[in-house]
Structures are given as C-alpha cells and as structure tokens.
Amino acid sequence: MAVGRAEIEGLDQARQDVGSVTVEGELIQEPIAGVHLRRAPTHADERGTLSEIFDVRWGFTEDPLVYVYHVTIRPEQVRGWVVHRTQNDRLFAYAGVLKIVLYDGRTESDTFGRVNVLHLGEHDRALLSIPAGVYHGVRNVGDREAAFVNLPSVPYQHDDPDKYRLPIDNDIIPYRL
Which pTM does this prediction carry? Predict the structure, then answer.
C-alpha cells in the first residue's frame, strides 16, 4: 500500500533522491575529461584471490610504467587535496572502502569545475587514471585500513616534487571530503 505525501512527516521538506546508477549499474555522473576507470575482476578460488592491476596491452594509457608505490589509509583519515602539473596518476584501489573525489581544476578543460565521486576498494577493485591538473582526495570510509597502489606517469622527484596541496577545507573545490 502506498503512503500519500501528506502521511509522511517531513516529506514536504525532503528532496527526492536522484538516481546515481543506470538500470545496468553504470554510474550516471559525467566523467571529468581524461579520467578513465577500468574495473578489475577478482578471481577467487580455495587459495585466495587474484586481480590484475595493469597491462600495457589494455591500452588504458599511453604513459609508460616507470614508478610504483603503495599507500595505506587508516579509517576515517584523508589524503588530499593533491594536484600535479605534469604527472598523471593511476590509482589501483583494492583494499578497504575508499571514497575518491576528483575536481577538474584545468581552466581550459571542457569539464573545468566538474566533481566526480567514486567508491572503490575490495568490493569494487579498479584502476583509475587521473590526469595532471585534476585535484584528488581520498578518504577511507570503511572501518579498517584501506589501501591503493599508485602507478604515476613519472618517477617521484624527491628534490623537486610535482605535488601541490590544498587544505582539506578550501574555497576552490566545491566538495567537502
């Protein structure tokens, strides 16, 4: 039996939810230009699981594989906002539950000012490409340590890093991690 609008307290002040996925389960949000997502199927058997991270044959990116590092994030902790001038990041989220938020800060981009929000990790392993000029922040929204691997397009330069940070709360990015 359906309930009429007048029969639910506060419904007149609530806004109707807008769907976030299609019937097929694809995200509805428009992606930021240059951002790509490749889901990674997890193959399980009695020994454990296997999930492929990167293969040049996929054509996922033209950037070479030159440097790889591993990052962990404790529950409720945040890494970001970070942006690079020349480096493209490729994050492979595989453990815990990560909320990854992207903001297109490239003033010449067709998607300048657009925000993308993704939830990736052990439930939905994926490789995510983030072009230079796109701010990114990562929050562990799970209840245990989360992790990702980064495969950036250039090695980290310890004496002159291509890494710029904004405070978590700032007036540039219209999203609160």
Answer: 0.85
